[in-house]
Design brief:
With about 120 residues, the protein is of the alpha+beta class. Helix content is about 15%, strand content about 25%. It is built from three helices and five strands. It has a three-stranded antiparallel beta sheet with strand order 2-5-4. It has a two-stranded antiparallel ribbon with strand order 1-3. The protein is globular, with a radius of gyration of 13 Å. It starts with about 20 loop residues before the first strand and ends with a helix.
Length: about 120
């Protein structure tokens, strides 16, 4: 399967340990009360700043595997404090993911409807 933004990925992106798979629940901060397509755009698509050596991570979508890790992130970074935290799922059809310390990076496959899949 072809990854979304694959032409912009640096070598070894996604990392070798990134695998397709079902994960539920996962948690994601969204912009408003209603889940929209923009909520599943990566840093580059949203024109958000990122360190030059973090291009691979900037091409991924971030999730948390526990509410506690999400709460810790909102305490650490002001940008998450006014966002809504939603629970959902990812499936093997979404892409390749890697989890470290209750944070999951997902590199999406092309043409995935994450709003539909996440909400189930």
């Amino acid at each position: 399967m072809i990854l979304k933004n694959q032409v912009h990925m640096p070598p070894q992106c996604p990392p070798v340990g990134a695998i397709p798979g079902n994960v539920s629940p996962v948690y994601r901060f969204i912009e408003n009360e209603k889940l929209e397509e923009i909520d599943f755009q990566n840093h580059i698509e949203r024109k958000r700043p990122y360190p030059p050596n973090k291009t691979c991570e900037a091409l991924a979508i971030s999730f948390f595997t526990s509410t506690q890790s999400a709460r810790n992130m909102s305490k650490k970074f002001k940008t998450f404090r006014n966002k809504t935290l939603l629970a959902g799922k990812i499936t093997t059809e979404c892409g390749r993911h890697q989890t470290q310390h209750q944070h999951l990076n997902l590199w999406l496959y092309e043409n995935v409807d994450m709003v539909k899949i996440f909400q189930g």
